Amino acid sequence: xxxxxxxxxxxxxxxxxxxxxxxxxxxxxxxxxxxxxxxxxxxxxxxxxxxxxxxxxxxxxxxxxxxxxxxxxxxxxxxxxxxxxxxxxxxxxxxxxxxxxxxxxxxxxxxxxxxxxxxxxxxxxxxxxxxxxxxxxxxxxxxxxxxxxxxxxx
Length: 154
Ligand code: ASC
Hints:
Elements: H1 3-25, H2 29-55, H3 63-79, H4 99-102, H5 104-125, H6 130-151
Helix pairs in contact: 2-3, 3-5, 5-6
The structure holds ascorbic acid.
C-alpha cells in the first residue's frame, strides 16, 4: 500500500475514535434533564439525611447547621417543581414512574404538600429548639414518603 494510503487509513481510524468519544460525552436532552432532577433530589436527600440523624439522636443537634440544612431542603424542594418536564420521562435510568406525568394532578398535590412541609420545617428550625423541630421534621419526612410510595419505582 502507498504510504499516503496508510496515512489516510490511520487518520480515519483515529478520527472515528474522536467522533465516537465526543458523542459518548454529550448527554442527550433527556439524560441532561434526568441528571438535573437527580441532582436536586440528591442535594435535598443528603441534607435531609443529615437532619434525620440529628432527630433520631444519632448526631448532636447544632441549631445553626440544622437550620441551614432545612433552608437547603426547602430551596431544593422548590426547585423540584421544574424537575419533571415531559422530556425527562425516559431516556436514562430513573426511578421516576410514568404515572408522574399521567396522573399529574395527584403528583402536583403531593409535591406541593412536600414543599409546604419543607418551608414549615425551615421556619421551625430557625427557632433553635429541637423538640419543636421534631414534629415539623416528621411531617416533612411523611410528605417525602407519601410521594415515593406512589411515584418512585423501588
Ligand atoms: C429520608 C429520605 C427520604 C425520606 C423518607 C421519609 O431521609 O432519604 O426519602 O427521609 O424516607 O420517610
